[in-house]
Amino acid sequence: MPYTIARRMLLSEQGQSWKKDLVTEENCPWSPLKASCLYGQLPKFTLYQSNAILSHLSVSLGFYGKDQREVALMDMVNDSMEDLRSKYVTLIYTNYEAGNKDYVKELSPRLKSFETLLSSNQGDQAFIMGNQVSFADYNLLDLLLNHQVLAPSCSMGTFCQKWAAFQARPKEVAGYFYAPASGLDPKVEEH
């Protein structure tokens, strides 16, 4: 579920409808089929991986940069976010008790490159690149929300400004969290 947040925010802001349909092992009629599927995921979709789906939606809806340079830079930033997300997921699911204190201590330095990038782009625009939101912005916001839950006292000044900028957007991405279809608390994603 954590990987769906950026996609749902992007779709919500663009007025695209989506439905949260939580599938569990108990209510999954196709569990036996999953073992034969690519990556063990459902055959209904042409794309199986979360970032591939996010990239496809971003290209389709015009959120993937205006030229090849921006595309390459967004991919670089998104890959960096996934590196941090991978460390976060490892901590949460396999090493929380033993690794939490060190992870939180190292978090501010890990976020520094993202903060530098945000603060160097168009001042208070708070976008990763240019003057328009991109798929990488949605993914970064998702990453921020996870880390705010994990380490609310961590220094995330630029990120907090970014969150405020998203809330102030005309179509208000923050409103996504309050949408009945999201089924989410506005500050905490289901894990």
Can you walk me through this structure?
InterPro entries: Glutathione-S-Trfase_C-like, Glutathione-S-Trfase_C_sf, Glutathione_S-Trfase_N, GST_C, GST_superfamily, Thioredoxin-like_sf. Residues 67-191 form the GST C-terminal domain. Keywords: Transferase. The protein has eight helices and no strands. The chain has two domains: 4-61, 3-Layer(aba) Sandwich (Glutaredoxin); 68-178, Up-down Bundle (Glutathione S-transferase Yfyf (Class Pi), Chain A, domain 2), CATH 1.20.1050. α1 packs parallel to α3 (50-61), α4 packs antiparallel against α5 (96-120) and α5 crosses α7 (157-167). The protein is mainly α and 191 residues long. It starts with a helix and ends in a 13-residue tail after the last helix. Mean pLDDT is 75; it is low at 181-191.
What is the element string, with H for helices and E for strands?
A: HHHHHHHH
Tell me, what's the shape?
A: globular
Count the helices. How many?
8
The largest β sheet comes out as:
none
Uncertain segments are 181-191
What is the number of E strands?
A: 0
Q: What does the oligomeric state look like here? A: single chain
Overall pLDDT metric: 75
Provide the CATH architecture of the largest domain: Up-down Bundle
| Beta-strand percent range | under 5%
First-residue to last-residue Cα separation: 7 Å
Helix and strand composition category: mainly alpha
* Overall number of domains: 2
CATH class of the largest domain: Mainly Alpha
User: What is the alpha-carbon Rg in Å?
Assistant: 17 Å
GO molecular function, one term: glutathione transferase activity
Domain GST C-terminal: 67-191
Subunit structure: Homodimer. Interacts with CDK5.
Organism: Rhinolophus ferrumequinum
